[in-house]
């Protein structure tokens, strides 16, 4: 009787397991760390987006629920360049080139095909920066399933809530303090008045653990504030060349205006700072 009962329980478990595999959740994560969020594609419905009312259509993709943490960075790259140390703090002091290398190295580590071809011996003709001495030529490896940086449009689509958007000004709220770490709230006390670096410095402002504020409509954290996030695109790429790459979201140093989903920041690809990080993307 006991054997028959045990067999019956095992059979039920097997059937339930099979059913759950046949009908995966829409937001099922494609990687073992379970830290990517599925973003259903479509057109922009957030009225505060730069792309609202335009013909831009985004395909389905996965994006990091959090900014890349120092723990994640160290596990892949072997060292931690960040000025503010902590496993669950976002990695910072990383250039665009650093982020590109991380994407490829993490892809290799997880058995995925690297998304980028990096030629360190060929200077990128499109890079018009007078201060960037690196200028690696980086191209896309078509069909690769590895990690990459979001395009500006993908970043803004995800930050604005995708098809779940409620047209917030910031990522997930109209009140920046609910969702973002920025110059007024990222230190010992809440600051007032106009942006002021001496105030920020004396207030001991710094990065905060990822996911400490409320998420946006898609369950994404810190897309406004904490650290600025690298995107793939050139800033002003409509001219086919530029001196800067796009950064989005604002950071703990910046003014609240920088936290708006529509704000377009720029930074030289070789640049890095204590408020400069990123998050990763993968295709569907």
Q: Can you write the helix and strand succession as a string? A: HEEEEHHEEHHHEEEEE
Helical/strand content category: alpha+beta
Distance between the termini: 48 Å
How much helical structure, as a percent, in the residues? 10-25%
Number of helices: 6
**Major sheet details:** 4 strands, mixed
Mean pLDDT: 89
Number of strands: 11
Anisotropy-based shape: globular
Task: Tell me the strand order in the biggest sheet.
Answer: 9-8-7-10
Strand content: 15-25%
Task: Assign the CATH architecture.
Answer: Alpha-Beta Complex
Q: What is the CATH topology assignment? A: paralog of FGE (formylglycine-generating enzyme)
The total tally of domains equals: 1
Low-confidence stretches: 1-32
The value of Rg in angstroms is 21 Å
The CATH superfamily name is: paralog of FGE (formylglycine-generating enzyme)
CATH class: Alpha Beta
**Subunit organisation of the chains:** single chain
